[in-house]
Amino acid sequence: MAPQRPIIIDCDPGQDDAVALLVALGSSELDIIGITAVAGNVPLKLTETNARKVCELANRTEIKVFAGHDAPLERPLVTAEDVHGRTGLDGPDLPEPTMKLQEAHATAFIINSLREHPARSVTLCPLGPLTNIAAAIEAAPDIISRIEEIVLMGGANFERGNVTPAAEFNIYVDPQAADIVFSSGVPITVMSLDVTHQALTTTERIAAFRSLGNPAGLATAEMMEFFARFDSEKYGTAGAPLHDPCVIAYLLQPDLFSGKMVNVEIETESELTMGMTVVDWWNVTNRPANAKFISTVDDDGYFNLLTERIGLL
After folding, report:
1. pLDDT in tens, 194-232
2. Measured between alpha carbons, how far is 245 from 268 in angstroms, rounded to an integer?
3. Parallel, antiparallel or unpaired: strands 264-266 and 277-279
């Protein structure tokens, strides 16, 4: 049996974050060192609570959950209750968690974990704004050479923005943090809206989660039904893009995805295009490539993988 891949999931749950967490928790290939929460889809108090709710739903109360930054590095927090509901996990009725929140700050946990594990063995999986990751890099530059890879959900190229005409939500919320991460030199793989908008929660796919018959499958179906109502109307599609689980699916089955190495710069000055991921897809600038930008996904294979792993919980 292959050794487990050590990962830290940094998230702002969010229904799609919750599904990503469930898939990871159902995957024996992954060693979840810890889950760190950041303010994003909803404020920090809700995101750290929601992360613990999901761990309890999966009967994985041994997982350590850490609270991180409650605001972006330089800008006021922008949230997305219009998409995710008041709690961030509207849809299922999940009980308040009884497992304890860890006392350490998420950024300190990230730094210490990278220092304690062998160099280039830990993968960081940010599913929300990059505040915690950037703060760790700023506070402890020595960790840059210790990170195996950052696989993140954020940004857009051909799909453009989903919170402004130019910007995807996670990058827009903390563009300064994103700029630090993309300028760090760490190997980065980007799950952008170009990919996630190909992975839609159709009625049939939601029904497959529900038919699993376990609590995690039912909760996933209920979350998807709530989540889909907003994006289906917004985009006129047969379902909502299921963004964040793309990160975990890529770790488990990278052959579902394709993309290429490109240069990605983050706009941090212009309010008109704040948070835009400027992707040099056609290599017109000769700036060095700093990220693998994923552009396509086998959507049926993706949902089959998610359904299989959630079925194991």
Report:
1. 999 999 999 999 999 999 999 999 999 999 998 777 666
2. 27
3. antiparallel
Q: Tell me the C-alpha distance between 171 and 267, whole Å.
A: 9
Q: Can you say whether residue 287 is alpha, beta or left, with left for phi > 0 and alpha for psi between -120 and 50 degrees?
A: beta
DSSP letter string over 116-153? Answer: HSPTT-EEEEE-S-SHHHHHHHHH-GGGGGGEEEEEEE
Per the structure block, which two tokens stand in for 108?
Answer: 């300190």
Angle between helices 15-25 and 245-252 (to 10 degrees): 20
Q: Which helix (H) or strand (E) holds 244?
A: none
Whether cis (ω within 30° of 0) applies to the bond prior to 14 is yes
Q: Evaluate whether 189 touches 294 at the Cβ level (below 8 Å).
A: yes
Q: Check residues 309 and 235 and name the one with the higher pLDDT.
A: 309
Task: List, as one string, the DSSP characters of 16-60.
Answer: HHHHHHHHHHT-TTEEEEEEEE-SSSS-HHHHHHHHHHHHHHTT-
* pTM, full prediction: 0.96
Q: Contacts for 206-215 with beta carbons within 8 Å, 24 or more apart?
A: 206/239, 208/303, 208/307, 209/306, 209/307, 209/310, 212/307, 212/310, 212/311, 214/310, 214/311, 214/313, 215/57, 215/313
Give the N- to C-terminal CA distance of the chain in Å, as an integer: 20
DSSP-derived 3-state class of residue 235: helix
Of the residues 69, 84, 197, 243, which is catalytic? 243
Amino acid symbol at 8: I
Model pLDDT for residues 227-261, shown as the tens digit of each residue = 777 666 666 677 888 999 999 999 999 999 999 99
Note the pLDDT of residue 233.
66
Structure token pair of residue 137 = 């890099």
The reply to whether 243 belongs to the active site is: yes
What distance in Å separates the CA atoms of residue 239 and residue 189, rounded to the nearest whole number? 25
Is residue 114 helix, strand or coil? helix
Nearest CA among 58, 56, 36 for reference residue 47: 36
